[in-house]
Amino acid sequence: MSRIGHKIIRIPDGVEVKFEGNKLTVNGQRGTMEKEIPSEIIIELKDREICVASKGNTRRVEALWGLYRSLIANMITGIGNGFKKELELSGIGFKVKKDGSDFILSLGFSHPVKFPTSTGIAFEVSGDTKLIISGSDKELVGQVAAKIRELKKPEPYKGKGIKYKGEFIRRKSGKVGKVGATLGAK
Predict the structure, then answer these.
(1) Spatial CA neighbour of 114 closest among 101, 133, 127
(2) Residue 131 near residue 103 (C-beta atoms within 8 A)
(3) Over the range 26-63, which residues count as b (16 or more CB within 10 Å of their CB) and which as e?
């Protein structure tokens, strides 16, 4: 039994939801999103609320029930408010600057890294070391943030790299040798 699937989704003001056939369409101030819904999932629209139910009790149908309830809720939240991820650059000489629609990252490589913008994603540079990624599709925002973070993951010794805001980087101590011991002395 899906615990998530039982929750009712409330539709905020300014967001319209239509369900025709097996296609769910969500319209709002941030654009339009569409999602194909499998035939095992039942969607009922009532008074600015969406109820999601399932046909059957198999394990696959129960998993789809909770999944599609979450996907629909994320679509409605994204069209209404949007999602954002904040990245922080830490390290000497690490910085980000906007270059037209693209932006350039200086990450300690021999060359600056140019990152193109994606459709449906907005980038905002705050200072030299903060990058804010926002959009209406939660999956796309997270995927773009992960691609940028993958360019230079934070390393555990000095903590240099790109990290999410509020992410804790577990630090390691450097090399520790015996004091006064020499290599090959017996």
Answers:
(1) 101
(2) yes
(3) bebebeebeeebeebbebeeeeeebebebeeeeeebbe
Residue where the block lists tokens 């109820």: 51
- Per CATH, the number for 9-80 is 3.90.930.12
What is the CA 40 to chain-centroid distance, rounded?
28
Predicted pLDDT of residue 182: 59
CATH architecture of 83-164: Alpha-Beta Complex (3.90)
CA proximity to 62, closest of 43, 40, 45, 44? 40
In degrees to the nearest 10, what's the CA dihedral of 72, 41, 143, 134?
-10
Collect the ranges in the chain with pLDDT lower than 70.
Answer: 1-2, 177-186
Q: Which residue's structure tokens are 């909770």?
A: 66
The set of long-range contacts for 28-33, using a CB threshold of 8 Å and a minimum separation of 24, is: 28/79, 28/80, 29/79, 29/80, 30/78, 30/79, 30/80, 30/82, 30/136, 31/79, 31/120, 31/136, 32/79, 33/75, 33/78, 33/79, 33/136, 33/137
Tell me which H or E stretch contains 57: none
Supply the pTM of this predicted model.
Answer: 0.82
Spell out the domain ranges in the chain: 9-80, 83-164
Task: Identify the pLDDT of residue 178.
Answer: 61
